[in-house]
Amino acid sequence: MKLLLDSCVSLRICDELAAGGHDVLAAADWGKDPGDEEILDRAHKEGRVLITLDKDFGELAIIQERPHSGILRLVDISITRQAAVCLHVLDLHGENLRKGAIVTAEPGRLRVRPPRN
């Protein structure tokens, strides 16, 4: 699956996600942070699921109805667990994410907002 890590997500998870067979890019590699709208737009243009810690992407996607190719938000997940949680969620909900779902992963809980029709 094609993924884009938001600039707030640790680069330490890139290798683990790539080892899991995913095509991973990181916004942190772009130099200056272009802002949430540009990150979401680029992820969508490239067909990438956005992985973030930031709840503002939900507002962009839901309230402002900006197009996206799926969003995975990690809440209170330690850096040492982020890659494992991402891999688990991608395994369980990858197809929904590809279709534009928003998945929020918290310790002991997953919330899935289905894609818009």
Question: Which band does the percent of strand residues land in?
Answer: 15-25%
Topology as H/E string? EHEHEHEHEE
Q: Mind summarizing the main beta sheet? A: 6 strands, mixed
* General shape: globular
Please state the average pLDDT score: 94
Number of helices: 4
| Contiguous runs where pLDDT drops below 50 for at least 5 residues | none
**N/C terminus separation:** 21 Å
Biggest sheet: strand arrangement:
2-1-3-4-5-6
Number of strands: 6
Q: Determine the fraction of residues in helical runs and give it as a percent range.
A: 25-40%
Class from secondary-structure proportions = alpha/beta
Cα radius of gyration in angstroms: 13 Å
What is the subunit arrangement here? single chain
In short:
This protein has 117 residues and is an alpha/beta fold. It is 38% helix and 22% strand. It has a six-stranded mixed β-sheet, sandwiched between helices.
Helix-strand blueprint:
Elements: E1 2-5, H1 14-19, E2 23-26, H2 36-45, E3 49-52, H3 56-63, E4 71-74, H4 79-98, E5 102-106, E6 109-113
Parallel strand pairs: 1-2, 1-3, 3-4, 4-5
Antiparallel strand pairs: 5-6
Describe this structure in words.
The protein is α/β, with parallel strands linked by helices. The chain has helices at about 15-20, 35-45, 55-65, 80-100, and strands spanning about 1-5, 25, 50, 70-75, 100-105, 110-115. β4, α4 and β5 (about 100-105) form a beta-alpha-beta unit. The longest helix has 20 residues, at about 80-100. The mean pLDDT is about 95.
